[in-house]
Amino acid sequence: MASGPPVIHFDIDLSELRGECLFTESLLLASLLTQPLASPFTDLVHRCDAIRTEQQILTDAIIRQEALIVECDRDLDKLADEVEAVVRKLAGNDRTLPIYIAFIPRPLNELKRPILGAELVTAETWPEKMKSGPPELAAFYDRTVALIVRCRKALADLQTLEIKLEQLPITGSIKKLVDDTNSTRAKAFGLLGELVHAHPELLLPNDWPGRFFRRTRRRTGTPASLETVMAQIAVLKTKMDALERLRIDLVGHEDVEKRAKADAERHDAETLLASKQKSLDVLQAEIEALKKKTE
Q1: What predicted TM-score, i.e. pTM, was given to this entire model?
Q2: Among 23, 69, 81, 108, which one is least packed by beta carbons within 10 Å?
Q3: Phi/psi of residue 220, nearest 5 degrees
Q4: Which uninterrupted H or E stretch holds 164?
């Protein structure tokens, strides 16, 4: 006789786990002898349904949050278009001037990719510049600050939901459900073994307890297959590639910002130098005039 039913690992699909419990419950209910052992498995099926509902609620919330992010991005695109138009006007359509580069360090079509990516990072530098800038730009201050807060909250809420969904099988209720399922199966297996010895008149075979548990499920009692692991690695690589592209965008944005700041400081220094030079020329002219009067 086997020592117990196959062990179920926590990475099992919830539908498969429910199927395991339902399979055992159905067989137990089919016989008057084993019906008293069925109720724990009925409870496990109900818990699977509750967690599946929890998963669906999180999935739906993620979809809704993604829609909110798209709406935030559209509002940010609109704001960026308006700010760019004002800055371009102030720069006299010269996109190389520091005032333009300070607000639009890269072409807008590049800043707008990906959704709430470099464009949001760029917009976060605007409020301070708007406060100290011309009135045409200062008028955008309140709207920009409010939109940045809204965008960041939308992204943070999405991340929270995604983490909850991803961690559900590892640290959440699914792990406890799998642990409880394994202990319930082991207990039922033992009780079924006792029935074999308690009813010799039924001539139950030694492997009878094991017949109440499915034996051929791919993810029951065995590690994940190589194909499954490779598929998971591929998904993770895709996520890493996307994050790497975003990192490059952000680093590039920071470099542009630094250059723009340096250009602005150099422009201010040149303007101040020209002003001082003009003042010096005026003073020298006055000195020359005074010298002539005293000769």
Answers
A1: 0.61
A2: 81
A3: -100, 115
A4: helix 141-171
